[in-house]
TrEMBL record, chain A:
Species for this entry: Rhynchospora pubera
Annotated InterPro entries: Apc5, Apc5_dom
Pfam families recorded: ANAPC5
Domain of life (superkingdom): Eukaryota
GO aspect biological process, one term: anaphase-promoting complex-dependent catabolic process
Name this polypeptide is given: Anaphase-promoting complex subunit 5
Key words of the record: Cell cycle, Cell division, Mitosis, Ubl conjugation pathway
Span of domain Anaphase-promoting complex subunit: 14-65
A GO CC annotation given for this chain: anaphase-promoting complex
Homology family: Belongs to the APC5 family.
UniProtKB/TrEMBL annotation, chain B:
Record lineage: Eukaryota, Viridiplantae, Streptophyta, Embryophyta, Tracheophyta
Domain Anaphase-promoting complex subunit 4 long: 266-465
BP GO terms, sorted: anaphase-promoting complex-dependent catabolic process; cell division; protein K11-linked ubiquitination
WD repeat placement: 77-111
GO cellular component term, pick one: anaphase-promoting complex
UniProt-listed InterPro entries: APC4 (IPR024789), Apc4-like_WD40_dom (IPR024977), APC4_long_dom (IPR024790), WD40/YVTN_repeat-like_dom_sf (IPR015943), WD40_repeat_dom_sf (IPR036322), WD40_rpt (IPR001680)
Keywords of this entry: Cell cycle, Cell division, Mitosis, Ubl conjugation pathway, WD repeat
Protein's UniProt name: Anaphase-promoting complex subunit 4
Keyword Cell division belongs to the record: yes
Domain Anaphase-promoting complex subunit 4-like WD40: 41-126
Keyword set includes Cell division: yes
SUPFAM superfamilies (UniProt xref): WD40 repeat-like
């Protein structure tokens, strides 16, 4: 993702270019402090030598650095130094780190646009989109009562930036860099291609070799870096839809990347596309399909992308262990994830957050509510500290879940509502539906008097959940729906049994795919009870038998778990 | 002429002020109109009157008679109605099309050909009742506007400045914020079509095919033959549709014995309760689907614009380079242009043919010009791709995903026919189209690059041949020139992708990759890259059509007939049917306790049907019939056929008057327009406008379970009421009047057209006038 190091355009002085390279390398290897020193100096020299191109690249490199190290509070000190170097808005008011980052980004983008550095401008737009995805943009200057503050993220901006960054192909060729930069890579690949064509068609002697070329097999004259940038916009689109909640678009964008950009993609990016596809499979098609796909991906992946695949494997195993009730294994996997999070490269905050989340979930499944709450609260504090608002929404929802399950139902409500408002501010539609569902479940737990309200909430969240939620979420929603009807005192099961049985059997079906024995058993229990009430003995027995089966497999979990532990 | 008119106006206004105490319906103005008026309707929201003339011109007038616009649709207009919000005018035509026009400027926003015969009647009804049940009614949000900038417009072909297009799509996409409404249309062949928002067709029924219930308690069922629809009216809660039609009633299972008696006007009560019960679902589906259709239109137009631009540029290129072939032949060489260029590239030799071509035929300026043309075309095609096609595809992908999500909510959306499988299919195709677009983008970039490289090389060669310095010319890559000569001199991969007729050759490596993708949740149809962009687009349209046909048929099937009331027979069918007979249907909030009889979901609505009885039917002359509560009768007592009855009345008008038109007006009033047959040009009062309170009339309860006399009016003959002009308010009009009578309930106005081409607007509602004066 680091911007192309310019080889042209820097004629005046090579010193700042060298500094830029140095800074980029330092940040690549994780020495952010030294990297920043080098980059700051590069800014100085570029300004002194009027080297606009280098200045623009340096600004972009600084933005990248901050993005990678996170826009945490303690980085303010670092960021202030370049900020004071002429980029100051001169207001004298302390702005937040994010705002400074935004200012830098916009400046770099503007310069890149005016200098027609198309690749850099595409890269900056991508970064900007990444920023907009997770941050609420506040106006820099807001005085007086009339200054309206829209405390929401702006998805339309993200969409615009992504579209613009995808246009890097359009302007390709117009900036002439590609032509001047021709270092013979194309000629090499062209010759190689010629050779393979020759080899393949040894048997067809009567034909001219020249005729067997395939137009689509021709090496592309577009530099791989340009294509990579165009492809990144699709990957980022996929990520943005994970946030906003549109399952088909997550998949489609990852597929576009895997289909159209596979030949040029860097190994980490292409494995990211596969990770997204496999995650999609795991959530929508169940564990078995996802694991077989994972196996394929493991075969394909190169050593550099091993980390991502390994991470994915741990995540999937953890999910499956939780569903199957293999708590010991889950705990072990959690620990492994935690280890991955703080490896030699420094602490990866996102990964660390995820590890703690999974830790709390594991504790929740083993009914250790106090500990789970402690972990989750800790996590909330650190997310708050590092300004990770989007993650906050998830953590708050988890806290609500913990309280809901521990029996202090009312305590969960404020957490769920807080999560809901976070989701609204960040346009996290799917998570919002999930929070709504949790609130509905909380109302349900408060007694049959609230069944109507719960039912309203479930219905409200259903279009989103059924459309874009995975198997587990759909099953949960169906379950809640059935429970709403069952606990509604005015509802009579005899008049309309299908309105309870349909969602229940749907939920049972989905949960079976996930091997979520505990909940499947509960679903079958309810189904059996309904049939019993209706006096349908055969169906009742069938459901009861399934109930028993799943209960047995849950009890056998320990045994299977030991095997898994061995295998793992 | 002008002066005379002014005089008349002055006169009438003067007369009005004089006797304002006694004469009801104050005359607002009297203006000449230079044409014969066929139809007129008041806007439901504003003081606007839409008029259709005999020559099928459509005019829009303000209340002060200022004309806003005139349009000539070019087809014979057979019906007219306003959208409930008053922003659109729907026009039905002789050939079965329905046009929607913008009230602001009269521009046509949409034309649909849903009927095969003349559209006789239109009725556009909005869901006026608030949902009572909170649980069923959740607010549905269209997320698209939150995540996407406004959808792209149909691209313009450069050189053609067409300002209309831009507004068109904008207008139609503003549909999103509308309330749920349904446009219902009936045609001469007995078909009734429904469309949500007037743009998304949701149902079509042929009244010849529906079985009509009888109220005889026997097993006989009826069917209509040779029917044509005269009037349709949806109830305000959208769950019932009253149809007045002319046709022949036949009894199923019996041989026609004396069928002549069963030809006549009938009143049908259709159950359209799906529009009420599944309102939210239909609203969402229609909103998403109509938006998707709009954007698909953009995609299709984009592809054709790109194709047009590209082929234009390429034909120019080819025509220029064709010259080489003939030059080669002239020089008696046995080779082709490709070989000649290659040998030039490899430095073997420069054949005289090629030299002549480069120096004389094409020339340096020619190369530059051609290069510029191709470059510009490439930029334009790129712009269309970037700003129209790709954003449109993205939005389609999102909206289709939303619809697919809804389709998975089977409990709600199965009943409106949103099918999960079909939607999945659409989702897959829209995703493939996104990949196709990306591939096209890549191919286009490469091809443009190769062209540029080739032109640079040609330019350089030309310069060398001219022995000019070449340092100003950009460096060209020789390998790319070879690729160009091999692949682009003869064939055109860009054009291939833009045309549906080609198929694309996919290399093994890509094929393998795509096959592998299936395991990662890729597309099962692994051959999709063999299709071109254009054919994939066709496929998407096909899938969408299939998917949206399901709701259409599902909803159509649910519409059933609940009640039948044969009104009056007509002896000779042919001449009378061509003339529209005055009739009016209105639903009123019920003040009596009839609510108990009516379906609970839609309380307090009573229908009034008022019609002129054709002279000669049953030996009657100069009569009008009024039927009340027919729709309630069919629904309320369908269990017990014996009890189904309704209120009806036959009113005999004084013999000297001829009923020109009639209309139901707010608060159970009937407005009649009568011509005085005995008057002549000297008499001041040549016609009358009468308003009577319908609820005060002595209705007779009539049973629908008739035996001998199947027609309703048979039973009313004995209780016929003679209209006494004292019972209502009336006002004399100093002109002979013609159809139509346009009454506006919201404004309390009536517009009357005289046969001497005058328009008279009367204020029906004095109370309202006072109120407005007070304000």
């Amino acid at each position: 993702m680091s911007p192309q190091v310019p080889q042209s355009g820097i004629i005046l002085g090579r010193y700042e270019a060298a500094l830029l390279c140095l800074g980029t390398l330092h940040s690549r290897f994780g020495h952010s402090k030294t990297a920043l020193d080098a980059l700051t100096e590069a800014v100085c020299f570029s300004q002194r030598n009027n080297d606009d191109a280098c200045l623009t690249y340096t600004l972009a490199a600084i933005c990248n650095l901050f993005f990678e190290t996170g826009t945490s509070r303690h980085s303010i000190g670092i960021i202030e130094s370049p900020h004071s170097l002429g980029t100051s808005t001169g207001m004298g008011t302390p702005s937040s780190t994010q705002q400074l980052l935004l200012v830098l980004l916009k400046r770099s983008l503007k310069r890149a646009d005016s200098l027609k550095l198309t690749s850099l401008s595409a890269h900056n737009r991508l970064t900007l989109a990444k920023f907009d995805l997770k941050h609420v943009k506040r106006p820099l200057v807001s005085f007086g009562p009339k200054a309206s503050t829209n405390l929401k993220t702006c998805p339309i901006d993200v969409c615009r930036e992504l579209r613009l960054s995808g246009r890097v192909l359009t302007d390709f060729g117009s900036d002439n860099i590609s032509l001047l930069n021709d270092s013979g890579t194309f000629s090499t690949s062209w010759l190689k291609n010629l050779a393979t064509v020759n080899n393949k068609n040894m048997w067809s002697i009567h034909r001219n070799d020249y005729d067997v070329f395939n137009w689509y097999l021709q090496p592309s004259p577009i530099p791989a870096s340009v294509l990579q940038l165009a492809g990144s916009s699709y990957l980022l689109r996929s990520t943005s839809w994970e946030h906003y909640g549109s399952a088909p678009l997550v998949r489609v964008n990852a597929l576009v990347y895997a289909t159209c950009f596979a030949d040029v993609a860097s190994s980490s990016e292409s494995s990211l596309a596969y990770v997204k596809l496999i995650q999609h499979l795991a959530v929508f098609k169940g564990h078995s399909e996802a694991f077989s796909a994972l196996k394929l991906a493991e075969e394909k992946s190169s050593s550099t992308s091993k980390f991502q695949i390994r991470l994915l494997r741990l995540q999937m195993l953890h999910d499956r262990a939780l569903h199957r009730g293999h708590l010991k294994l889950a705990q072990k996997l959690c620990d492994d994830l935690g280890d991955l999070a703080s490896s030699g490269n420094g602490v990866d905050m996102d990964l660390k957050t995820e590890a703690s989340l999974r830790q709390a979930r594991t504790l929740l499944s083993s009914n250790q509510f106090g500990q789970a709450e402690a972990v989750a609260s800790n996590l909330f504090c650190s997310c708050y500290k590092y300004n990770m608002q989007v993650e906050n929404a998830t953590v708050l929802l988890l806290l609500a879940e913990i309280h809901k399950k521990s029996g202090n139902v009312m305590l969960g409500l404020p957490y769920a509502l807080a999560s809901l408002s976070f989701c609204k501010a960040f346009n996290l539609d799917l998570l919002e539906a999930c929070a709504t569902l949790t609130i509905a479940e909380i109302w349900l737990a408060l007694g049959p008097g609230h069944a109507k309200r719960a039912s309203y909430l479930v219905h409200k969240s259903l279009p989103m959940i059924l459309g874009h939620g995975g198997l587990e979420l759909c099953a949960r929603a169906n379950f809640a729906l059935a429970k709403c009807y069952l606990s509604d005192p005015t509802f009579s099961i005899v008049t309309d049994p299908s309105c309870v049985l349909d969602p229940l059997s749907q939920a049972a079906e989905e949960l079976q795919i996930l091997e979520y024995h505990e909940m499947v058993a509960e679903a079958f229990y309810l189904i059996a009870m309904v049939y019993n009430h209706l006096g349908m003995v055969d169906e009742r027995e069938e459901a009861a038998a399934s109930f028993k089966n799943h209960l047995l497999s849950l009890e056998n979990a320990n045994q299977a778990e030991d095997e898994e532990l061995l295998f793992y | 002429m002008e002066e005379e008119v002014e005089e008349v106006e002055m006169e009438s206004v003067g007369e009005d002020t004089e006797a304002s105490g006694s004469i009801p319906f104050q005359l607002q103005f009297d203006k000449p109109v230079p044409f014969q008026v066929k139809m007129a309707e008041w806007n439901p929201e504003k003081d606007l009157l839409a008029i259709v003339t005999d020559e099928s011109k459509v005019l829009l007038h303000r209340f002060n008679w200022q004309r806003l616009w005139t349009i000539i649709p070019g087809k014979s207009i057979t019906s007219l109605c306003w959208s409930p919000d008053g922003k659109l005018i729907a026009l039905g035509t002789e050939d079965g099309s329905i046009f929607l026009h913008d009230v602001e400027n009269g521009k046509m926003l949409r034309s649909m050909r849903t009927h095969d015969a003349a559209v006789i009647c239109l009725n556009w009804e909005e869901d006026a009742l608030k949902a009572v049940d909170r649980d069923r009614h959740f607010v549905y949000e269209d997320r698209t506007t939150r995540f996407f900038p406004p959808p792209p417009q149909v691209p313009r072909i450069p050189g053609l400045s067409d300002g209309d297009l831009e507004e068109t799509t904008q207008q139609l996409s503003s549909v999103s914020c509308q309330r749920f409404n349904i446009l219902c249309s009936g045609d001469r062949d007995g078909c009734i079509c429904f469309s949500i928002f007037g743009i998304f067709p949701i149902g079509k029924i042929n009244i010849h095919n529906i079985l009509l219930p009888n109220h005889l308690g026997t097993n006989y069922q009826y069917q209509l033959k040779n029917a044509s629809i005269s009037k349709v009216a949806l109830s305000r809660d959208l769950c019932r549709l009253e149809v007045l039609c002319f046709g022949e009633l036949i009894e199923l299972g019996t041989s026609p014995k004396n069928n002549d008696t069963l030809v006549g006007f009938h009143c049908l009560n259709l159950d359209t309760s799906i529009f009420l019960n599944r309102k939210n679902e239909l609203h969402q589906v229609a909103q998403q689907a109509s938006n998707i259709e709009d954007v698909v239109e953009v995609v299709r137009a984009s592809i054709s614009v790109m194709s047009k631009q590209w082929t234009d540029a390429m034909s120019l290129f080819k025509s220029k380079f064709q010259a080489i072939a003939s030059l080669i032949a002239e020089h008696g060489l046995d080779s082709n242009s490709q070989d000649e260029f290659l040998s030039l590239l490899l430095g073997v030799r420069t054949s005289p043919a090629l030299q002549q071509f480069l120096l004389n035929t094409l020339g340096e300026a020619g190369v530059k010009r051609l290069s510029k043309t191709v470059d510009n075309t490439g930029k334009e095609v790129r712009t269309v791709l970037n700003e129209h096609l790709q954003p449109a595809l993205e939005i389609i992908g999102f909206r289709v995903g939303e619809l697919r999500g809804l389709s998975r909510w089977r409990a709600r959306f199965k009943s409106v026919g949103l099918d999960e499988k079909l939607m999945d299919n659409v989702t897959e195709t829209s995703g493939m189209l996104l990949i196709q677009a990306e591939r096209f983008s890549r191919v286009l970039t490469i091809v443009l690059f190769l062209f540029q490289n080739f032109f640079n090389w040609v330019l350089k060669c030309t310069k060398i041949l001219l022995q000019e310095p070449t340092d100003q010319v950009q460096q060209a890559n020789s390998e790319l020139v070879v690729v160009f000569l091999k692949f682009l001199l003869q064939s055109d991969p860009v054009e291939q992708l833009l045309e549906a007729k080609y198929s694309v050759e996919v290399d093994m490596e890509t094929m393998k990759r795509i096959e592998q993708m299936v395991a990662f949740g890729g597309y099962r149809d692994v051959t999709f890259l063999e299709r071109t962009l254009a054919s994939e687009c066709n496929k998407l349209e096909q899938c969408l059509k299939e998917a949206f046909l399901m709701p259409f048929t599902t909803v159509s099937e649910t519409v059933a007939c609940k009640g039948l009331a044969p009104l009056f027979p007509v002896a000779s069918p042919t001449p009378s049917t061509s003339l529209p007979i005055p009739m009016s249907i209105h639903y009123y909030k019920d003040e009596v306790d009839r609510a108990s009889e009516i379906d609970k979901a839609s309380p307090n609505l009573t229908d009034y049907t008022c019609f002129k009885v054709l002279d000669g039917s049953l030996g009657l002359k100069n009569c009008i019939g009024i039927v009340r509560g027919f729709m309630g009768a069919g629904l309320g007592s369908s269990v017990n056929a014996e009890e189904s009855c309704l209120d009806a009345l036959l009113v005999h008008l004084p013999d000297q008057y001829d009923c020109v038109d009639l209309s139901l007006y707010k608060e159970n009033q009937i407005v009649l327009l009568l011509n005085d047959l005995e008057s002549n040009s000297e008499t001041a009062e040549r016609s009358l406008m009468v308003m009577m309170q319908a609820s005060d009339l002595p209705f007779v309860s009539v049973s629908l379970s008739m035996s001998d006399n199947i027609f309703l009016l048979h039973q009313l003959e004995d209780s016929m009421m003679n209209l006494d002009l004292d019972i209502g308010k009336f006002r004399a009009i100093p002109h002979h009047v013609t159809v139509p009578l346009a009454v506006s309930a919201s404004r309390g106005l009536a517009c009357v057209f005289s046969s001497q081409r005058h328009t008279l607007v009367y204020i029906l509602d004095e109370d309202e006038d006072e109120v407005s004066e007070m304000e």
